[in-house]
């Protein structure tokens, strides 16, 4: 029965192709089809379509030629459907020549008319990452920023979608800090870009009435998601990290080491609005960490005060004459982390077993797709 269905389908396809051959093609269409076939064969021979850059550049060229021919001959949208069918017929082994993907190629070429960004940036990320950016990000500068971040951090498609939907571009580097006068350049700029405002803890299921210990416990239980929101480079050192100072016990809410900045990062959690005395407490913690934990080759430790709310003027006054580098950011509690991200990041046990090698390795996201159609 299955064999009969296959034979019937095969005959139907043959008939469709035969009919298509008798339908008169619009002026210039045959030349375009042959030209694209030649270009595709050349790309196959030169790179076997294995190199992502070649594939993206090919798709851009296909999209550019479609736009040119449509303008020259006044073709409508239906020609794309026919082109998709003929290209699939000419290259049956290859995926990527569906009508939908050809429309993405056209949109891709339209978005980058001169092709320079394709050569320099877009060609370095997988094709479907580019499609996501076309769909979800309309501003060119913002789109290019996400491209650079994807290249730098090796974001998978799921992670890229999450970062776009959480508004990372608008939050990155927006925390209120005193880094300009407490850290040397370029460390001050690097540190400023690491911080966000606000942080989005959309993976927590705690209510607005939660206490600081509840927030800390929830973040640690979801340490994988917490690390994703903090960004690449944060290595977990400990929670309620004990320091003995002047024969008294003190406890840091959460302590990290940043692998790129080469410094300790002290996080102090507050469930209410920022108060000026929080800066003094953080200054105290940073002095202690620099004295007790900091290695001679480390950069000065950085403090992040995470508050539910803050008054910008009060924060700026509180940080103005503080000697230690401190940033103040807000945070939001919203929905839950998408299920497709769970399992992509390390567990708390894995982090505690190896604070350096395993953490840095675990923060490397999957490299994404090869650019083939799904």
Integer-rounded radius of gyration: 27 Å
Percent strand? 5-15%
Estimate the mean pLDDT confidence. Answer: 84
The structural domain count equals 2
The unreliable regions are 354-374
Helix-strand pattern:
HHHHHHHHHHEHHEHHEEEHEHEHH
The largest sheet is: 7 strands, mixed
The end-to-end distance, rounded to whole angstroms, is 28 Å
Question: What's the β-strand tally?
Answer: 7
Which percent bin holds the helix content? 40-55%
The CATH class of the largest domain, by name, is Alpha Beta
Look at the helices and sheets and give the structural class: alpha/beta
* Dominant shape: elongated
Per CATH, what is the topology of the largest domain?
A: Trna Endonuclease, Chain: A, domain 1
Instruction: Please tally the helical runs, counting DSSP H or I stretches of 4 or more residues.
Output: 18
CATH architecture of the largest domain: 3-Layer(aba) Sandwich
Secondary structure layout plus pairing:
Elements (H helix, E strand, L loop, with lengths): L1 H21 L6 H19 L4 H22 L4 H13 L8 H13 L4 H5 L6 H10 L3 H14 L3 H9 L2 H4 L4 E2 L1 H4 L4 H8 L4 E2 L11 H10 L1 H8 L3 E12 L2 E11 L4 E11 L3 H16 L9 E8 L2 H9 L5 E7 L15 H6 L3 H6 L12
Helix pairs in contact: 2-3, 3-5, 7-9, 13-14
Could you explain how this protein is built, in words?
- It is a single chain.
- This protein has 374 residues and is α/β, with parallel strands linked by helices.
- The chain folds into 2 domains: 2-153, no CATH class; 170-362, Trna Endonuclease, Chain: A, domain 1 (3-Layer(aba) Sandwich).
- It has 18 helices and 7 strands.
- Strands 1, 2, 3, 4, 5, 6 and 7 form a 7-stranded mixed β-sheet that branches.
- The protein is elongated, with a radius of gyration of 27 Å.
């Amino acid at each position: 029965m299955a064999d009969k269905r296959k034979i019937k389908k095969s005959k139907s396809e043959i008939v469709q192709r035969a009919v298509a051959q008798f339908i008169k093609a619009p002026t210039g269409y045959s030349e375009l089809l042959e030209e694209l076939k030649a270009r595709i064969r050349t790309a196959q021979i030169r790179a076997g379509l294995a190199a992502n850059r070649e594939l993206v550049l090919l798709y851009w060229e296909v999209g550019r030629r479609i736009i040119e021919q449509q303008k020259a001959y006044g073709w409508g949208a239906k020609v794309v459907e026919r082109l998709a069918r003929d290209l699939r017929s000419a290259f049956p082994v290859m995926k990527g020549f569906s009508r939908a993907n050809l429309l993405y190629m056209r949109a891709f070429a339209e978005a980058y008319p001169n092709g320079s960004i394709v050569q320099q940036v877009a060609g370095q990320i997988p094709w479907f990452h580019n499609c996501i950016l076309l769909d979800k990000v309309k501003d060119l500068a913002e789109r290019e920023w996400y491209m650079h971040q994807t290249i730098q951090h090796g974001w998978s498609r799921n992670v890229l979608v999450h970062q776009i939907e959480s508004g990372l571009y608008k939050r990155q580097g927006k925390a209120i800090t005193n880094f300009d006068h407490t850290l040397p350049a370029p460390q001050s700029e690097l540190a400023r870009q690491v911080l966000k405002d606000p942080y989005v803890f959309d993976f927590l299921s705690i209510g607005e009435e939660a206490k600081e210990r509840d927030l800390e416990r929830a973040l640690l239980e979801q340490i994988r998601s917490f690390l994703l929101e903090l960004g690449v480079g944060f290595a977990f050192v400990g929670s309620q990290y004990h320091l003995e100072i002047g024969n008294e016990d003190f406890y840091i809410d959460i302590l990290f080491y940043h692998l790129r900045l080469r410094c300790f990062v002290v996080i102090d959690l507050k469930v209410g609005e920022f108060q000026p005395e929080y800066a003094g407490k953080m200054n105290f913690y940073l002095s202690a960490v620099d004295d007790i934990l900091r290695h001679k080759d480390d950069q000065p430790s950085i403090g992040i005060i995470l508050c539910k709310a803050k008054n910008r003027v009060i924060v700026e006054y509180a940080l103005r004459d503080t000697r230690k580098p401190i940033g103040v950011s807000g945070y939001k509690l919203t929905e839950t982390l998408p299920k497709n991200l769970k399992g992509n990041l390390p567990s708390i046990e894995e982090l505690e077993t190896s604070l350096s090698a395993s953490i840095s390795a675990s923060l490397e996201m999957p490299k994404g797709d090869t650019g083939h159609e799904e």
